[in-house]
Amino acid sequence: MIAHLRGHLVQKSPSSAIIEVNGIGYQVWISLSTFYQLPDPPNETILYTYMYVREDLLQLFGFLTEKEKAIFQLLIGVSGIGPKLALNILSGISPEELLRCLSSADLDRLRAIPGVGRKTAERLLLDLREKAHRMMERLEFACEPSPTVSQVLDDVISALVNLGYKRNEAEKTAEGLVRKNPAITLEQALRECLHQLSLR
Q1: Which of 21, 45, 63 is the last residue of a domain?
Q2: What pLDDT digit, counting tens, does each position of 24-38 carry?
Q3: Would you say residue 96 has pLDDT above 90?
Q4: Does residue 184 fall inside a structural domain?
């Protein structure tokens, strides 16, 4: 089992990263949260990893913090939630907000996560509410300083384009949101843009 990778970041995208360790490049699937916190190539980084193995598939999923990895493992323990959907959930909501929503049974917020319908949200609450409450008692989350408005806007547009949205559509959605909410964080802005675009 590969528990973590430490090496030079060769490449990163909103969905994956390649880390070179002793001459070997490992492709690691990541959440948007991890993507935004990774350094630029070719800086050294460390990712905590989870190896997913099936008869026909072997994949590495990476996390910048052990906390995010722990929540990922909680999610894939729920029936019907595989690693890709778990990463999608962590890309649509921060780990700390997810724990709060689960602990307080906030069904509407869970349903607002792209890719999570009512049945999935209800299953999450049924299986993870008590576990999330216990994890909140154990874990302490640090708040990252917010980037400037222009940085947030540029990064949100770039992420949306990388995810397949047209640039003019991405710019219109992001500018309208960020200009009205100058204190919004990068992750909050991206989640809200994805939510707005999913309704169109």
Answers
A1: 63
A2: 999 999 998 889 888
A3: no
A4: yes
- The angle at the Cα of 4, spanning 6 to 80, to the nearest 5 degrees, equals 140
- Asked whether residue 153 is domain-assigned, the answer is yes
What is the pLDDT at residue 141?
45
Most confident residue range from 21-30, 32-41, 124-133:
21-30
Residue type, position 26, single letter: Y
Q: Is residue 173 part of a domain?
A: yes
Q: Is 95 exposed, middle or buried, given 0-12, 13-18 or 19+ CB atoms closer than 10 A?
A: buried
| Domain carrying residue 183 | 149-198
Q: How confident is the model at residue 17 (pLDDT cuts 50, 70, 90)?
A: very high
CATH (domain of 52)? 2.40.50.140
DSSP string, 44-98: EEEEEEEEEEETTEEEEEEESSHHHHHHHHHHHTSTT--HHHHHHHHHHS-HHHH
Which runs of consecutive H residues, i.e. helices, occur in 104-143?
Answer: 107-111, 118-138
Q: Which pair of structure tokens corresponds to residue 158?
A: 């770039």
Query: Which residue's structure tokens are 């724990």?
Result: 99
Q: Are residues 178 and 124 in the same domain?
A: no
Residue 110 CB neighbour total at 10 angstroms: 23
